Amino acid sequence: MTHWFHRNPLKATAPVSFNYYGVVTGPSASKICNITEDEAKEVHRSLKIAAGIFKHLKESHIPKLITPAEKGRDLESRLIEAYVIQCQAEAQEVTIARAIELKHAPGLIAALAYETANFYQKADHTLSSLEPAYSAKWRKYLHLKMCFYTAYAYCYHGETLLASDKCGEAIRSLQEAEKLYAKAEALCKEYGETKGPGPTVKPSGHLFFRKLGNLVKNTLEKCQRENGFIYFQKIPTEAPQLELKANYGLVEPIPFEFPPASAQWTPETLAAFDLTKRPKDDSTKPKPEEEVKPVKEPDIKPQKDTGCYIS
């Protein structure tokens, strides 16, 4: 979490550090701090539930507010929509990591990565009309994740092309992955230097980020060797178009509904509350200082014999 997911502070919350380095001093404690298969499923499900909650609030409750949400605040429509999309994208990140771990077909991984990159691009576009003071840092994060997963898509698409004996196109796909990975690294630095709400995470320091750099480099070198010994194909000047569509692993928000209201809250009861007639709160107004009367000190003369003694 400390390295990978950007989180904006919501109202009435304090920054939470998930950095346990230097704190964990034994294997049992370390085991508790490591994303297991069942825990990964829980993270995946929790992100889908979160997306459903945000979606439900946006569609069913926020429009009913008496006063509209202020721009750049927690309940602003564009922010809520960006939260929905980001939760979907992050849930798919868990799917991608799982697919890579289980060595699924490169074509499936490429398609999932491409769909995830599109999610991040869509979330970034949703925030584009907000003032930079509210969105600049968040948008840098979304942009770097978009570049990162597009690089993943080109990398695994290159493997698919090589398996189909299209070595020249595979090399060009890997070259594009290399360029996008370098761009993602640069955006990580820009993100760290951008001021804005939320603690700064360090995706470029995460093992999952660094692994892609090595994978792109090694796969590109492999394709170049194969082309030099076997295929002798011309390398296209244009990168291949990623017209990828995942048939599995796509994330949809889990529908959410609040529990039903108490039977006491009838329309008649609700209508009986008129907030426009709420009494004004005068407690914050400064009150005139009360007159402080001087306190007269008692005139007590010391006596020689008080009747008190220490035994």
Structure overview:
The protein is an all-alpha fold. The protein has one domain: Alpha Horseshoe (Serine Threonine Protein Phosphatase 5, Tetratricopeptide repeat). It has helices at 27-32, 37-61, 77-101, 106-126, 132-163, 167-193, 207-231, 267-271. The model is unreliable at 307-311 (pLDDT under 50).
Radius of gyration: 30 Å
Amount of beta strand: under 5%
Identify the overall geometry. Answer: elongated
Number of strands: 0
Please outline what is shown here.
This protein has 311 residues and is an all-alpha fold. It has eight helices and no strands.
List keywords for this structure.
53% helix; disordered C terminus; mainly alpha; BRO1_sf; Serine Threonine Protein Phosphatase 5, Tetratricopeptide repeat; 311 residues
